[in-house]
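Sample A.
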Amino acid sequence: MSVAAEAVVNALRDLAEQRPGEITLLDGFPDAELDGWPVRVPEAVRVVLRVVGGVTAGRQRYVFGPSGRPPRIRSTSGGATWALNPGGDILAVAGDGTAPDWGPVLSAAYVDAYAFTVEAPGFVPWLEVLTRRLAGKTTHDRTGVVEAPPFTVAAVPSIEVAEGPDAELAAMVGSGHSLVDVADLRDLPGYPCAISWEPYFTYDGGTADTSGSDVDYRLVGGGRVLLLESDVSGDFLGRPVRRHRIPGDAAASAVSRLHALARRFPKLVTLAEGTADAELDRWPVPVPPDVRTVLRAIGEVRVAGMPALRLMPGEPWQQVDPALHRIIDGDGPYWPLAHVGHGPRSVSLAHVRIDSATGQWGYVVSVPGGADALRDEPELVLLAESLPALLLNVARIAEEAVSRAAASGADPASLITGVSTWFTPNTGQPWTMPVPVEEWAGDPDPLRARAAAFPPGSHAADLRDSPVPTDLCFYRAESWSWHRTLDRLHFLGGGEVVVAVAETGD
């Protein structure tokens, strides 16, 4: 590698001598200065940087030292990103210093802030390509108007990787997230190689709010993996997401984990006794086997810093106001779980939707607890795909708080408080896109087809391909007139598809 580095230095020197005034080499750095850089500099890179600190050729300018603007891409697990030009749009990954070269070198095209190309496997090969291009021996040009790279790899959902068979890749990705995609850079087909990917948010002007969405880029594993995270803020989700798989034993696992927490940390987690089968049989709603597993064991879940989850009847607030009941009982029964907030317009009702056709307990959602508030601004938040899934998430949050508190000395409850915002709609989670039901006419999906049969002007949203949690704000849709008021909400398939029907005369 050092031989190749010496060769590219000599080639750059020759070019600068042959074309003075056009190609300029910036001064290099002494070893003492390289030793003080925040990244390790292996010998092959030092061979270049001792002599060449950057290259300018017309409008093109590459500054290899710390004078470049810090790049937007962050890296973790063995190395940091290092800008190779002042704009920070071409970057090398500096490893732990044991590898003979930095690498890979990544670029973000000027014409699209979300388009990435892996230019070369390392700093020295990238500099070789740059040198050949400056010498006119290659047409590859990564500045201004660019040719399509000859190779492409597709980014895939991080949850798919986390739950997949590649243990090495899964270890670098972690548990995965619905709004994070992964580009595997370990064995690319060739260079330059484009990353086929798009953000999860919309950016076409029809946004819900200020459209402050952005993308966070992370390189992990010393540059072996690129993580692309959509930070959806003030914008609608623009494409389906992958969600974590709910285990088949979710109900039993949730019960076991919550009981273990209650035994070990009684000041943090308190559980009420469950309900006998004979009593469950008298409930006004059907109770399927997986839900019975939970309800037999637990009647209420109280976690410090979170809203209490009431799983059995008996609280006055579970008698929902008739006006609100009329709006949310459009297609069948539901089961209240929590009453969150204070004041008529800030209270929320978290509840499980029950499929009237099958009796299955479906999605857990939360709606504004006042009929007037819901009628004026129809919205809800999806909390979980099921009651067992919600309790698994509650257990995970409590477990993580205990772990973090043990490391920091903090009170576990203080690390949980912010989770209560999930139970109140429109709290900054990504917004699922509602559409006029007419758009689903003729859709082969049964739930969408049912939604399309509602009166024209109704809006619907499919929550099956949304992240958890997600906000659904019908009134923020561009096609929902600002003066329109809600008549009924219909939850099809146990809440998988939600339809908002406007009051007549709108």
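Sample B, a different protein:
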Amino acid sequence: MVQEIAIRVRLREQERVGLAEYERIVGSVATVAAVIAWLPTPDAKLVVRGRGAEPVRLETLSYGSTFEMLVVLDQRSAAVERAGAAVAALVESVRHERVADDVAGIAGELDRLDRSAPRGRSVVERSLRSFLEGARADVLARRSTTRLRAAQALLRLAEDGAELVVERVEDALAPVVDEQAVDVLADTGSAVVVEPVDGIGSPEPATSEDRTKDGEAKKAKVSGKQVKAEKSGKDDKSKKDKKDKKDKKAKKAKKAGKAEKDKKHGGKKSKKQ
């Protein structure tokens, strides 16, 4: 299986990376990746957005003051790999070069890139120098071109002191399956700082013994509810029986009192006659 080409970009000593800065870095890296893929075919049109230009995968990682990004290109050609190595050498050379005067602006910065570019005779190296010279000409002519914007992205990475490493990956589309729990250390509203949590793993699957215990607990719970309902029904029946007996006694006493009263009224009438 032919492995795909990946470019690892590492930026050290970065301040807290906000959303705007993050988008700027991602845009610069994606643009430079498109330039690397285009360098072996300089007669073709340079495209920095769209099919064939954008990377097949892009991952970011931040630890301490280091910001790291892995860009997997949709390329397998050895010529593209050499183009990545040439751009990496160019950025590395700029990192170690001292700039005496920055008054010249973007044209002067592009001159500095051109001076730092590899001086070999390969197609890729000559294409890289021609690309930088053309971007400088666009600046002097005050033209806003795709070539100039791409050169400025390369310039930003060089000024940020980026380190580029060319790698090969076996499966660019493999899903990320490893997960790790984290704790929030600080939340300022604009940024959240987290750290890994040690000792927390995925929950173990329930065993047959656990399932049996859960089943027995559920049965006991249902049985308890049934006993409670039966007891409540018995109590209601007992209260009803007591109430019926009390009513019967009251009716009987009332009936006896009425009979006794009628008897007294009947005795008084017979005495008058």
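Observation for Sample B: The first helix runs from residue 19 to 38.
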